[in-house]
Design brief:
Rossmann fold; five-stranded parallel beta sheet; 5 strands; about 300 residues; Helicase, Ruva Protein, domain 3
């Protein structure tokens, strides 16, 4: 399978590998000039992501359906793509109360590749297949590759598809090989990098935006956000405890002492405290109402 992806010159033809005429004199500029030119390129990324929102929306809807049926979301990436995937997955626990075994990331070279480059591992198709060997038809596999052609990522998506999982591809070029293995391909056309081929730059920024938007929209659809408040936040340290109190204050329109008291009674379950205070009911009844509403605060409050 890997011969297709080692075709001579195929990498050279990618837009991300081309020379960027807007930064051709980068080494002639002073420090502020360098930074300004890089920032000029960064400003193009959000526009490129916006063009891919319809596909990203389809990906979120597919993931929402599988999640509600008990499935997982598993991200696959190599190099920068894998590190960004690991970062996004790690942050969902404290922010949205997501169990680590339901939204997770795997990268070529394993966790050691987080700290040190393991570039050769990205060419191992079979290793990518093995990384997805435990997926089932309930799951969602998200393959992230700036080039859209990384063998490890393609191997993972191929294996996930064979096992019936929904497959989503994230690439920074149009019409890549990734599309052959993905039910939905989110292709963000970031174009030439400020430094030719350095996809840790614009492509990496695009991937961060896409992954953040994907996971956040999924959490909103799952009822883990009320308005724009993170009502499933886990109060595991002082900062998050203060945030939980502030969220209850804002949502229930009470003072800090009342918010903290109800949170304490509710074992610092933010949603439960909000529903109890807004409806003037006891904590067990608030929990029951939330359970009937599948954890959605707005529904538990009877709001439309």
């Amino acid at each position: 399978m890997t011969e297709l992806f080692s075709e001579p010159g195929s990498l050279d033809r990618l837009p991300t590998e081309q020379l960027n005429p807007r930064t051709a004199d980068l080494d002639r500029l002073d420090t502020l000039g360098i930074l300004t030119r890089i920032n000029d390129e960064d400003r193009l990324v959000a526009t490129a992501v916006r063009a891919a929102l319809p596909e990203l929306g389809r990906a979120v809807d597919l993931a929402t359906a599988r999640w509600r049926a008990g499935g997982r979301v598993v991200l696959f990436g190599a190099g920068t793509s894998g590190r960004l995937a690991m970062l996004d997955a790690a942050e969902l626990g404290p922010t949205f109360g997501v169990p680590a075994d339901r939204y997770l990331a795997r990268m070529a070279g394993g966790t050691d590749a987080l700290r040190a480059a393991s570039e050769g591992s990205e060419d191992d198709w079979a290793s990518g297949e093995a990384a997805a060997a435990d997926l089932t038809a309930a799951d969602v596999a998200v393959g992230i590759a700036a080039s859209g052609r990384t063998p490890w990522v393609l191997g993972a998506l191929a294996a996930a598809r064979r096992r019936g999982a929904v497959t989503i591809g994230v690439a920074c070029v149009l019409g890549s090989e990734l599309g052959a293995y993905a039910d939905v391909t989110v292709a963000v056309d970031t174009g030439p990098e400020p430094i030719a081929g350095s996809t840790r730059m614009k492509a990496g920024t695009a991937q961060k935006l896409v992954l953040n938007a994907f996971s956040t929209a999924l959490m909103v659809r799952l009822g883990k956000v009320y308005g724009n408040l993170m009502v499933d936040v886990q109060a595991t340290n002082g900062k998050l405890r203060r945030r939980a109190i502030r969220i209850v204050q804002q949502a229930a329109r009470v003072d800090a002492a009342t918010a903290e008291g109800t949170l304490t009674e509710a074992s610092f379950e933010v949603k439960t405290a909000i529903v109890a205070l807004r409806l003037g009911i006891v904590v067990p009844e608030a929990r029951a109402r939330l359970a009937q509403a599948d954890g959605a605060v707005r529904q538990a409050l009877g709001e439309t």
